[in-house]
Amino acid sequence: MGFPNISSYTTSERYDMKGVEMLSVQGLTKAFGSGSNKLQVLKGVDMNIKQGEMVALMGPSGSGKSTLLNIIGGLLAGDDGSITLGKRTYGLKGPSSVVDVRRELVGWIFQDFHLLDNLTAIDNVAMALELSGMPSSEAVFAAQTALTKVGLGDRMHFIPDQLSGGQQQRVAIARAIAGNRPVLLADEPTGNLDIASGKEVMALFKELCHDEENPISILMVTHDPDLASNADRMLLLNDGRTEASDIRSAWGLDHEDDTAAEAAETESEEGGEEE
């Protein structure tokens, strides 16, 4: 698909290549329902992610975070706007028209691992590749490579019940990155993990983004400010649009501080008048 491969570049050139824009969303809108029941969820989302960058997406429940991920991931059609991923532009057609996006460009990581209980780690990863059309021998090799990359080289032939929660999520991550997809969409990826396992997953995400030969880009939806603080950037989805943010504004703390300051100022003024 024409994505930059920086394995042949010097260290400084690799750093520069990480500034290449991988994903761009322009003016994306989406509404559900019609007439008086119409709900405008996305009202013109503009955002971009560079190669090798991890971006955390936060926002209140019902703000449209999952809707945005579903459109980027080719599971849902937007109403207006466009998405550019590498050289592929899409966003307004249904899932059947963007099969290539799901097969080749975007990997998904969910809160639930979605592993088949009776298959080993390598079979879980390889089967997903075979379903996308990859020959069996190539799929097995790609699965081995991906599992080794996520630190499960010695657990390839274990079934899910023989793996910890953190290890099962690593299998899910291996499944997502197998085939060298350039973008990962992670929807609450540590929601079912304990604190230690969650930190391990975040460390793995950073390793994948900073990989010198094939850095990937990650868009992660999370409600956890600690996880979001590990990202390169944070975006807040608010009132149907994205905006640059930090933890304080994402949780409305800046607004609370402003309100408190205004109240204190009013109190001070009233006290001065009484004197």
Explained architecture:
This protein has 275 residues and is an alpha/beta fold. It has helices at residues 11-17, 65-72, 99-105, 121-131, 136-149, 165-177, 195-209, 225-228, 247-250, 253-274, and strands spanning 21-32, 39-50, 54-58, 80-85, 88-90, 106-109, 183-187, 217-221, 233-238, 241-244. Strand 9 and strand 10 form a beta hairpin. It is globular and about 60 Å long.
Helix percentage range: 25-40%
Question: How many DSSP H or I helices?
Answer: 10
Query: What order do the helices and strands follow?
Result: HEEEHEEHEHHHEHEHEEHH
Rounded mean pLDDT score: 85
Total strands: 10
Instruction: Give the distance, in angstroms, between the N- and C-terminal Cα atoms.
Output: 74 Å
Across the major sheet, the strand order is 6-7-8-3-9-10
Explain the layout of strands and helices.
Blueprint: H1 11-17, E1 21-32, E2 39-50, E3 54-58, H2 65-72, E4 80-85, E5 88-90, H3 99-105, E6 106-109, H4 121-131, H5 136-149, H6 165-177, E7 183-187, H7 195-209, E8 217-221, H8 225-228, E9 233-238, E10 241-244, H9 247-250, H10 253-274
Task: Using brief descriptors, characterize the structure shown.
single chain, 275 residues, alpha/beta, six-stranded mixed beta sheet, four-stranded antiparallel beta sheet, 10 helices, 38% helix, globular, disordered N terminus
Summarize, please.
This protein has 275 residues and is α/β, with parallel strands linked by helices. The chain contains ten helices and ten strands.
